[in-house]
Amino acid sequence: MPGTPDYFAGKTILITGAASGIGRATALIFAREGANVVCADINQQGARETAAAANSAGSQALALHADVTSRAEVNEMVQRAVAAFGAVHFLFNSAGAAIRRAKFLEIDDALIEKTFALNVNGTFYAMQAVLPYMLKNRHGVIVNMASMAHRRGGPGSSVHYAAAKGAVVSMTMGVAREFATQGIRALSISPGPIKTPFQAAAQSSPELIQRFLEDVPMKRFGEPEEIGELVLFMCSDACAFMTADTVYVNGGGGWR
User: What is the pLDDT of residue 210?
Assistant: First the structure.
């Protein structure tokens, strides 16, 4: 929670991947706190549904179609967010996926290119688009979605995804340190297994689900809201000295 009451009231967060899962949960949490919420997703109908739910919670929400693998669409997304609300105070890059699971020798050019385009390029484009506005205001917080996979390496199923998320962690650290004296903070979150549509699709067998659970001492998957509340804290004035880090949220999982 923020250190100042009503800290988020009237401030604006831009969320990619807002149509479902962690992105949607985070949008509703910020709406609860009185923030303006820009809900961006390639799934425009899902983004509209998230925005409608945020508006019902008392927020001012805007739904935007955006394919984060397109620099032009990302630039337009940020421009429309600023035009609507005057500023973007917080950016949460939640859009991402492993595309599909594959053993290392089965990873082809198309899979690794698509994985990096979505997870790395999408995050890169959004940060480059929003940073000039944040720097002008000398204030901004960027939170990027990474994964525990970058520590474990994704053997046997998702080396391509783990590598992409490792790049997100490194890029977040570099941006945070480059702009630390200019009012900008940048952080990433590295979750273990979370109950989301992406995670459900990835769990293609009972054996894989069991393997995930064996790595989690709490013996359950995380909830999207548990990540959303962390994003809220990271963006708040209660977290003002934290930057350049990735935070592990994994129920005690031993992938470190």
Answer: 81
CA distances from 51 to 7, 12, 37, 123, 219 (A): 21, 13, 8, 21, 33
Which residues are catalytically annotated? 161
pTM above 0.90, yes or no: yes
217 touches 256 (CB < 8 A): no
Q: What is the mean pLDDT of each run of 10 residues along the chain (256 residues)?
A: 92 98 98 98 98 97 98 98 98 97 97 98 99 98 97 94 98 98 98 78 67 86 97 98 97 72
Return d(Cα 242, Cα 64) in angstroms, integer.
Answer: 30
Instruction: Give pLDDT, residue 196.
Output: 81
Contacts of 105 (CB under 8 A, 6+ apart): none
Q: Are 6 and 34 in contact (CB under 8 A)?
A: yes
Q: State how far Cα 61 lies from the chain centre.
A: 18
Closest residue by Cα to residue 183 from 89, 92, 246: 89
